[in-house]
Amino acid sequence: MQKTVSIVKIGGALLEEEALLEAVCQGFSAMGGAKILVHGGGQQASRVSQALGITPKMVDGRRITDADSLKVVVMVYGGLANKTLVARLQALGCNALGLSGADAGLIRARKRPPGNLDYGFVGDVEHVAADTLTTLLDAGLVPVFSALTHDGRGQLLNTNADTVAAEIAVALGRERRARLYYCFDKPGVLRQVTDPESTIPLLDQRLFRELLERGEIAAGMIPKLTNAFHALERGVSEVYIGPPTLLEGVSGPFTKISL
Ligand SMILES: Nc1ncnc2c1ncn2[C@@H]1O[C@H](COP(=O)(O)OP(=O)(O)O)[C@@H](O)[C@H]1O
Ligand SMILES: CC(=O)N[C@@H](CCC(=O)OP(=O)(O)O)C(=O)O
After folding, report:
1. Cβ(123) – ligand 2 distance below 6 Å
2. Which stretches make up the Aspartate/glutamate/uridylate kinase domain (predicted)?
3. 142-145 and 148-150: which strand pairing?
4. ipTM value > 0.90
5. How far apart are CA 127 and CA 105, in angstroms?
6. Which of 43, 166, 251, 257 has its CA 20 to 30 A from that of 49?
7. Is the Cβ atom of 259 under 6 angstroms away from ligand 1?
8. Whose CA is nearest to atom 10 of ligand 1?
């Protein structure tokens, strides 16, 4: 039988609130089989930036990462957010190993070339070292990735955490049955973003286009869904978007993505 692997991405909002953080750590720790956690931290990075007098700039859900902003995201994602999660998971008996894409050369990216807009030190993923990752999983370790990558020539880069999770799922999905979970602070993809009761149980590309045209899908949900469809097109078996309860496998609101 083909081995499975679960890749769970948690959004920055879940790291902000103790009850949500606890729910996500509990749910993730209890998941069986090989698993990987990828975390964001965009809200925290923006807050720390502001406190340091650096105004955060976001375009289409991506941070314009100049040299000073890169220092902030390395400190916040690779430091505070990553190590907090690792310690919490260790306390729950989950053998978490904190990583960035530079560690063991796991995720190499290419600095996005400046076109009409210069995103600065933002990386598009070129290669995930699936063999090394599989070695860690087979040793019983649980990788916990921040959204940092490197170019292989000494430069750290900032990559959207949804994209990091999708690229890991695609790379591992070549050998295993990969399930990708996007956990965030809403019950799923909503038909009307203002109505928390309007979770869409099954979302395909046709409905996505329809909701996009009506303006019901906006902001960070656009890159999240683009990453989700892209992952399914490139061999990931299942993609889900929902709240932390999604990880407990209990019935409740969430969205399953289909092509
Ligand atoms: N139709 C929609 N359903 C759910 N959320 C939506 C929708 N349209 C826009 N959003 C927004 O997208 C956000 C999720 O994207 P993002 O902030 O990037 O997630 P994350 O917390 O994973 O980083 C939600 O918090 C919500 O404000
Ligand atoms: C290039 C880019 O935009 N990187 C993201 C990485 C963090 C992230 O994705 O965090 P959330 O999942 O909490 O939004 C950023 O700096 O905001």
Report:
1. no
2. 7-241
3. unpaired
4. yes
5. 9
6. 166
7. no
8. 221
